Amino acid sequence: MIALEAKGLRKCYTAVPAVSDVNFSVRSGQVLGCLGANGAGKSTIVKMLTGLSEPTRGQVLSFGASIHKDLVVYRRRLGYVPEEPELYSFLSGWEYLELVGTLRALEHRRMEKKIDALLELFSLAPHRHSAIGSYSKGMRQRILLIAALLHDPEILILDEPLSGLDVVSAMVVKGLIKALGERGKAIFYCSHVLEVVEKVCSHVMILRKGTVIAYAPTVELQTMAGRSSLEDAFIHLVADRDAEQTASDIVSVISAA
Amino acid sequence: MNASSVNYAKEFWERLQQRPFPRLVRHCVDRIFSGGESAEPGELDPGIGTVLALLATPGAFASLFLTDHYGSLILWLSGRSTSFDPYAMSSSDEYFFIVLAMVVAGAVAVWKWDRLVPDRRDYANLAPLPIGSSRIFFANLAALALLAAVLSLDVNAVSSVLFPLVVCWQQSPMVFPTFLATHALTVVLASAFGFLAVFAVLAIFMALLPYRVFRKLSVYVRCGIVFLLMVLLATSFSVPQKMQRLGHASRAWTRLPPPAWFLGLCQTLRGLKGSVLVSLGDAAIVGLFGVLLFSLAAYSLCYARCFTQAAETPSNLTRGSARPTTLAFRVLDVLFLRSPFQRAAYRFAFRTIFRSEEQAFALGGFLSLGIVLASQKLLLAVGKKPPPAANALPSAELLSVPLILGYFLILGLWGVCAIPAPLRANWVFRFHLDPRTRECVPLARKIILTFVVPGLTAFCLPVYAHFWGWRIGALHTALVAIWCVLLMEGLLVGFRKIPFTCSLPKFKSHAIVNALLLALAYLAFTSATATIESWALADPLWYIAFVPFLLGALFALYFWPKTMLDADPALLFEEQSVRVVEVLNLGS
Question: Domain A1-77+153-217: which topology?
């Protein structure tokens, strides 16, 4: 069943479209990785998928219906981790999760139990009553992950969820994404880290200057590009310039008198 | 000035900017005006030019309002001589300008409180660079000195010329230069005193308290200073008269607030004689140097403790404990927070008001103003009459006290709700809420009611019942409650924001009209109501006078929202500015 579908998405902030003619779908149980260089249009797509921004043309469908038909119902099914952990710094981690859970109208007692359990599992329990302002980026990211999972969503949109996480937490989250996929969740996963996408995602979509240049199962994409790893395939498809040459040029500029 | 000298000055300035120390000073000035740990893009953070223009405004307006006071026609009409001693006659206005200079400079120090001393972010950015710690110390000190100097000159720039002009308009030409020089010098020194005094408090708190405790207490200390500044402003009405009554009292400076010292200095410089004036003038000079030395010492101490030791002190992440407010929220949930939206947003609003510095500080400011005005009424009432006898009725001044407090508390809460908590974090509401929700008004109503009604009732009923009996206590409490509800309902017409999640309101052309309406509402809400109530307590027939007002208010509250039917009912997260030019698209 197609849980999330983009049909001919186009978004224009200026005369030049930020995103143009983007089509893809995510079935329940699928993890779709979205790759692209900075400015490729990943965040614009995420904003349209979450309903925070409306497409100039095209539409986003969830289970066959436009998300804008009833955004509230759609968002009940959706869990979202934004790229930047923008949180209210004067609230404690526990209070922030309570805010999100209450806004989602979760039953209070069950919600509290769930929050406590998740804080424990994400190693945040000792600091659950400290102000978020004192949290590290990784801790904030974990709070966002818990907030996105609190209501057991059917669809997950994750924008760089591993950003700032330590090695152990990152491994936990990678395992979590895989497990959620296996349990039938539809996951849209944006990242710059190619090896994580390679390990976690069943399908990959590559963006370049706002358009989709590749969209296929991860293994097929490597084969199609004739490369052994996703990183090689990505560089082959996206890179405008030779990375090694650029690195060498930078060294020359630094060492110039 | 010819072109070559202008070019030379430009080049000199550019060369100066390229040297490390002046660049560091510029960085420190920039961070004071727009930066610091708590700075949020898109929020209340005007640039240097706007700030300087705004600071000069109160003095300019105050000078202009005095033109009729010293105009020969007004003096002639009021039966006073048109030839007067400018120094003696202007002393109470001079005192007002000194207070104003001190209060505005102090208020700027409170406003920029977080940015006056380099913080952890500066440490993270500057410490890894090959700059000695002492250089950063002196660069920030130079920036502070520059700020104090610019502030002192700017706050008083317009009034230093306008006020002497207004007073000396019809005096001999020799009076004006002396008056201008002494007035300008005094107000500039008073501004410097105000700024340095607040800075010294900040520095000493930072030096003595652990960083985490300082952050927690900071907002309360700031509110306390704002309250003291308001009190200082309120002394403008009484201190000049008190000074005249002091005669030849010894150690007069101990009985008067600092602005009086500077008035003494000003009058002494103008050649007025008197032991009191001389002692006050001496106190001003000693006080200024004292506060300068004290703030320097406190700054050195807090710099050594907070900046150079920033890497050595532990981060402020601690194992906090659960807050006791949770039970209170549960009770409120059962009693009147019906929907999940209300429960979530109420908790959020409550926590924001008490924990977010901007909001707590702004509400503290409103409340301080209310307390100062209420105290003045109280003092006026106590000064007028002997303590009330058993059968005496409360005067209008006494009746107006809870009304003043209620007015400022409601207005403060309403105003504070418009100040965004970090705006970038409001995505959580945008994402989770139905934009068509119509619960913003009930939510705001519940927030205001829970903050205002229990407190005012707890204060009003027992106090008035104790002094004037239960009947008057109950009647007055009921009237205060009804008036508060009406004011609140009036303010909430068309309200469609979740408190603290919408960008700051843009300036609209009707903002001035609204401000005037609020000032009129204050007079109607406090003075007029209290006066009619005092008559009604003596003769109950006067209660009928409230009926047309009440009916009018109810009628307006019923029909006013209906006129807004065309307005977009969706939740508001971004205030729109009014377009000056509408494009008609006639070509399409």
Answer: Rossmann fold (3.40.50)
